[in-house]
């Protein structure tokens, strides 16, 4: 889901010092970052990287807690209801912050009103992959096969970017299939790797190791262009012009968290994301650093909310 955040304030953010810890209010004890999806998936991976960077920057423990279920709603709702004291944060994604409101009658929280954005962290493409037994290697091959026989396909987050990526691929390709939605990357891969489903969509960091190991076949990345880390993998857009879906991830706090805490967390995260080591680590995972201001992150969420609400309405996507 590609809409770049406003980065005009990045240079100033990197140049300014971190707010002094001498203020003595935050963080004085370990901070939880809720990852609203299971361990091993992309949200979990980026939550743990974010926790490590903040721990290094602020000298206090940051621990990740996985609270999965309902397309991320359970974990996001827990953070929305948490005390706004800076000790419970959320690693949010397009699903939790911009999409679920259009799919669930009552997600249990408001992805815009109930949170104080801190900063975007990164953006990554999704990857469409197939079981090697299908004997195909690109989107054109998958489309041709799916028009010959009905294939089962999966995604890792109902209502999330992988769900929309799978449905947009199916609709633009003009194919049908048996859709299976999973609660995270690990259960979907548990069916895709042995061939119980024919193809699936996952965030690049979660599925790339299986592509490199040869246990899955890459069909294409969902970004507009090929990913520089694996230029041999085509973009879906090369077969379906205009196709594009990417996933972004960012840190948020409960609404009414004190501005001083938001400023401290933002400055720490922006500084760490600006280091060569962070850029290198994210690039290995297919990601791009996206540090910025809380205001830029809020504007990004609002734009994504409008964009994907319209797509869901026009496509008639409904939860099963």
TrEMBL record:
Keyword Signal found: yes
Q: Where is the signal peptide?
A: 1-22
UniProt keywords, alphabetically: Signal
Q: Which InterPro entries match?
A: BUG, Bug_dom1
Gene3D superfamilies in UniProt: Bordetella uptake gene, domain 1, Periplasmic binding protein-like II
Keyword Signal present in the record's keywords: the answer is yes
Instruction: Give the UniProt family note.
Output: Belongs to the UPF0065 (bug) family.
The protein depicted here goes by the name Tripartite tricarboxylate transporter substrate binding protein
Q: Which organism is it from?
A: Roseicella frigidaeris
